[in-house]
Write a structure and sequence with these properties.
Elements: E1 3-11, H1 15-19, H2 22-27, E2 32-36, H3 44-56, E3 60-64, H4 82-102, E4 107-110, H5 114-119, H6 124-135, E5 143-145, H7 150-157, E6 162-167, H8 191-201, E7 207-210, H9 217-230, E8 233-235
Parallel strand pairs: 1-2, 1-7, 1-8, 2-3, 3-4, 5-6, 6-7
Helix pairs in contact: 3-4, 4-6, 6-7, 8-9
Length: 239
């Protein structure tokens, strides 16, 4: 049976990258777009334009929710009370859904960003809050996260579809976590190295991510696609 894997990228975060055309080029190489909901970066015009482009490229739209921390780009932990985090996630998700609808699209999954992504992998209180925010809908969206995440375990127990994710452009620790960004070699910049890692991860994950702010993101994605195709791994949206 042919192995299938989704290929996703974070978008709607940087106006300069959008205006240069870089983000649009990336949309032509992926099957899912994690669209920033405006908390840690972006603005409504950028988010709407990103959704319109995703629809035009037949790319799935996902809600990338995060801590409301624009200065730290959502990569710094914020201690929110669980109830406040539920409200924050719902607000961001509903906001993106409205903008996506105006662009002719629909939000099909949720993927936390940065510090929130990693926090809910180990913090049961914040993990439960994200799951509760999803359950507020009668038909909750799938949740994307790292294998072993507490949030994914809770979501699955609650009947929510979970999507296990790997990173083609980030170095991993021996324990299976990501090397912190402030450490040397944390971000992979060699396309062949990223492609080899993507091929290895494709055996155990449902979706592979390349960050749009990684150096040479387009070259990384092109090489990842080439290597996956050469090994009969089909690239398609998990939805």
């Amino acid at each position: 049976m042919t192995r299938r894997v989704d290929l996703n990228v974070d978008l709607g975060e940087d106006r300069a990258r959008w205006e240069s055309g870089e983000d649009v080029w990336l949309l032509g190489l992926v099957t899912s777009a994690n669209v920033c909901c405006g908390a840690y970066a972006g603005d409504d015009d950028l988010i709407r334009a990103t959704c319109e482009a995703a629809v035009a490229h037949d790319v799935a739209i996902g809600a990338q929710v995060g801590y409301r921390d624009r200065e730290g780009f959502g990569r710094r932990e914020v201690d929110l009370a669980p109830r406040d985090l539920v409200d924050e996630v719902r607000h961001q998700l509903d906001h993106l859904a409205e903008l996506a609808d105006a662009a002719g699209g629909v939000v099909t999954y949720l993927k936390p960003h940065g510090a929130l992504y990693h926090r809910i992998a180990r913090d049961p209180h914040q993990a439960e809050a994200v799951v509760e925010a999803l359950l507020a809908d009668g038909n909750p969206l799938p949740l994307v996260g790292m294998p072993g995440s507490i949030a994914l375990e809770m979501a699955e127990d609650a009947g929510i579809r979970v999507v296990h994710e790997g990173f083609a452009d980030r170095a991993y620790t021996a324990e299976g976590g990501l090397v912190p960004r402030d450490q040397p070699g944390a971000v992979l910049t060699d396309p062949d190295e990223a492609a080899r890692q993507a091929l290895s991860l494709a055996e155990s994950v449902d979706s592979l991510c390349v960050h749009s702010d990684s150096p040479e993101a387009e070259a990384l994605l092109r090489r990842v696609r080439e290597v996956l195709a050469a090994h009969d791994v089909a690239i398609e949206a998990f939805g």
